[in-house]
Structure formats: structure tokens, C-alpha cells
Write a structure and sequence with these properties.
elongated, 6-stranded antiparallel beta sheet, alpha+beta, single chain, about 35% strand
């Protein structure tokens, strides 16, 4: 029984690692597109995981991840933004700018699934 438990734990860890890598790539793509749309420069071409947790949704349990990223308005200085994904769905994107600060997505208005 202990070998079986060990194999299950190994499979769960591998799944979590692959799912996290997929979510990170989606977050990078959304951040790049959003920065490009607002005329900003996406710095370091990466996002950093700040926090994760569990979220109950209509489709079951999903992992909610909060990523932080850096961008620049004119190539000088760094500004911080954040993006929240529930599973692979965009929940929130914040550029930290007054004109485009927070873009919440609500399921009632529309559902945006990222593949």
C-alpha cells in the first residue's frame, strides 16, 4: 500500500508542476498582449507566482494563482501589475495605471477561457 501511495503522490506532484507551468505560460501571454494593447513594455518577459490557493467554481475545484509582473510606460522605471488565474481562466488583470487599472472578468457578462 505504501508504494501505491508514493506513486499517487508522485503523479499528483507531476500534475501540479505541469499545470503550474501551463498557467504561467498563459499568464505571460495575457500580460504581453495587454501591455502591447496599452502601449507598454512588458519587462523581463516573465511573471512571478506570488500566491496560490483553492477556489470552488461551478465546474469544480480549481487552483487560483496570483502572479506579479513588471512593465514600463516609456522604457524608464518599473511599474508592477498583477494577474489572477482560476485554473486557466483569467479572473483579474491589473496594470496599476489609473487609466487601465483593473479589468475584472465576471462570468455573468462573458466567459473568457484561455487555451
Amino acid at each position: 500500500m505504501s508504494t501505491f501511495t508514493g506513486i499517487l503522490l508522485l503523479i499528483a506532484a507531476l500534475w501540479f508542476w505541469l499545470d503550474s507551468a501551463r498557467a504561467r505560460e498563459i499568464a505571460i501571454g495575457v500580460c504581453e498582449a495587454s501591455c502591447r494593447q496599452h502601449g507598454l513594455q512588458f519587462l523581463d518577459q516573465t511573471v512571478a507566482l506570488v500566491r496560490f490557493g483553492i477556489r470552488w467554481t461551478g465546474r469544480g475545484i480549481r487552483i487560483r494563482r496570483l502572479f506579479r509582473f513588471d512593465f514600463s510606460e516609456e522604457g524608464v522605471g518599473r511599474l508592477n501589475g498583477h494577474i489572477t488565474l482560476v485554473g486557466i481562466e483569467l479572473e483579474e488583470l491589473s496594470l496599476g495605471l489609473p487609466s487601465a487599472s483593473i479589468v475584472p472578468l465576471r462570468r455573468e457578462n462573458h466567459q473568457q477561457t484561455l487555451h
